[in-house]
Design goal:
543 residues; alpha/beta; four-stranded parallel β-sheet; 55% helix
Length: 543
């Protein structure tokens, strides 16, 4: 027997290791070897160092995400008043705490992404950053608390974040509208999980009970802390999705002390008499705008804005069709959900059209070249009910750790309609329906038929798995818990209940949510993680 040459064996091993190291440097490590969790600093979830994605993707990330967003931030600030921006950072807690951490939010939402998924998802998130900066600049330019222009303030209206921006379409050429809570509250939860906790505590400190929806509490707390810019002349509010919102609206109305029009959303659906009533509420909003702002109803402007919005809706359906029926969709879970919710609620904007044009090129490339964008998918999941706002990157973690690919989210589907523009009557009717389908309204508390749209959408998007978000302080969805359990058993559906409290991470932490999912995958599914380093880590102190 020939004696093995140990020296040659070692040389071959060294050469192989060098080749692999070079390949990993150029292309990045394959998924099973990345160990993304090893990048985190202990007890923080923050990175020791940036993720190396290979030369091409790392350079793309540096140029088209880091440099692009910093350039966008500087550019948007210069478009407005830089001095007021600086004042706003020092004046408002949510500004300094949240928007200076936005690039860390990108890191989490795009963790592990490569190639076309990295690009398409990043452009969606870039669009959100640009839209936020547009609104922040608009607020600060008009905010008399920090020396903003009273002239601009007098031509601006505010509205609840769940009041569709389309209500202002007939007046877009005459006045400005900026959502009230979108920037100080809604976006802040996603970027920094600590920011809104102070506002929740502030609302409870004046006697508001701790059991209503923490979203409503946080919105009221912004006013209690005097952290809302004074940038508007009048405001349009809604009852959002629950009685908790009505209660906090009373506090906000008292503290705003501005002309206010309340435009309620009906609790019932599929009833034409209620659509007629809702249409009258919208006409009342039109009259309120005209009385307060001296603006005139321009039919042509309304049609123009609605037709532009309909273009956005048609492309959204194109993206859904690719995601539902192919393996070629390049959009990850956070990018898909947040972009859709933000754009459909805010209304038509040049920012969405710019973003869609970029994403369409990437989407078409993936379809034409049949690029399997999420090759490690084990399960195609649909996420139902209201998601935890303090953990927008949960879908990214689910794919990287367990191969759970979230194809679609409930909130993404709420505004699935085009608004007719052939006559005033048809347009008003469709606008009323659109208003009825506000976030958390249609499929969360819109009646059993709409809550159970889950089943048809599971089939439509070819999903075999449900991530069932369980908002512990939502009385409406808590009442449906047992109904869903019965249906899951009857239909033999794998579903994971993920408890949370919308913006308040103290009730159920991100680590607890990951443990619930991991325990289910180990014990029920009998599966092993794709990346064991992501199964358990402490990120409680992380943004």
């Amino acid at each position: 027997m020939k004696k093995p040459n140990l020296k040659k064996g070692i040389e071959k091993l060294v050469k192989a290791d060098k080749k692999k190291a070079l390949r990993d440097f150029v292309y990045g490590k394959p998924h099973g070897e990345r160990r993304l969790g090893d990048n985190y600093l202990p007890k923080s979830g923050l990175y020791k160092h940036r993720e190396w994605r290979g030369v091409k993707d790392t350079m793309y990330y540096f140029n088209n995400i880091w440099l692009y967003n910093y350039g966008t931030i500087v550019g948007e600030v210069l478009k407005h008043n830089p001095i007021l921006f600086v004042k706003g950072i020092w004046r408002y807690r949510w500004m300094g705490q949240t928007y200076l951490t936005v690039l860390h939010w990108f890191d989490r939402c795009l963790e592990g992404e490569r190639d076309q998924v990295l690009r398409a998802s990043a452009w969606h998130l870039n669009g959100l950053v640009k839209a936020c900066l547009f609104q922040i600049g608009g607020m600060f330019d008009r905010d008399i608390k920090i020396g903003g222009s009273e002239t601009l303030r007098d031509r601006t209206m505010a509205h609840d974040e769940t009041v569709w921006g389309g209500v202002f379409y007939p007046y877009r050429d005459q006045i400005d509208n900026i959502p009230l809570q979108m920037i100080p509250y809604f976006v802040t939860c996603h970027c920094n999980s600590h920011t809104v906790l102070n506002y929740i505590d502030a609302a409870q400190s004046i006697g508001l009970p701790g059991d209503p929806c923490p979203m409503c509490q946080a919105e009221a707390g912004v006013f209690v802390q005097d952290d809302m810019p004074d940038y508007y002349r009048a405001v349009i509010t809604s009852n959002e999705a629950c009685d908790g919102s009505v209660g906090t609206s009373v506090i906000q109305d008292w503290m705003m002390n501005k002309p206010l029009y309340a435009m309620p959303q009906p609790m019932r659906f599929d009833d034409e008499s209620l659509v007629e009533n809702c249409a009258k509420e919208i006409e009342g909003a039109f009259r309120f705008i005209e009385e307060q702002m001296g603006a005139e109803f321009h039919w042509d402007e309304l049609v123009k804005q609605l037709e532009e919005q309909n273009k956005l809706q048609r492309f959204e359906r194109e993206k859904w069709d690719v995601a539902a029926n192919t393996k070629y969709s390049p959009i990850n879970a956070p990018a898909q959900a947040l972009y859709r919710i933000f754009s459909s609620q805010y209304g038509n904007s040049y920012i969405w059209h710019e973003t869609d044009a970029r994403v369409k090129k990437i989407l078409d490339k993936c379809v034409e070249q049949k690029i399997n964008t999420f090759p490690l998918t084990r399960h195609r999941a649909i996420a139902w009910s209201c998601a935890p706002l303090y953990y927008s990157a949960l879908g990214t973690w689910g794919y990287n750790c367990w191969g759970i690919n979230t194809i679609i989210n409930m909130d993404s589907l709420m505004f699935d309609m085009e608004v007719r523009t052939d006559s005033y009557e048809n347009t008003l009717h469709d606008m009323a329906v659109y208003h009825e389908w506000a976030p958390m309204r249609r499929m969360a508390v819109g009646g059993l038929h709409h809550v159970f749209e889950l089943w048809e959408n599971m089939e439509k998007f070819n999903c075999d798995f449900v991530l069932m978000y369980d908002q512990l302080q939502c009385k409406g969805m808590q009442g449906c818990h047992g109904l869903f359990e019965d249906e899951f058993r009857a239909r033999d559906i794998n579903a994971i209940w993920i408890p949370h409290a919308l913006p308040d991470k103290r009730t159920v932490s991100r680590r607890e949510q990951r443990k619930i999912i991991s325990d289910y995958m180990y014990t029920v599914m009998g599966e092993e993680p794709l990346d064991p380093s992501l199964v358990d880590f402490d990120d409680d102190n992380s943004w």
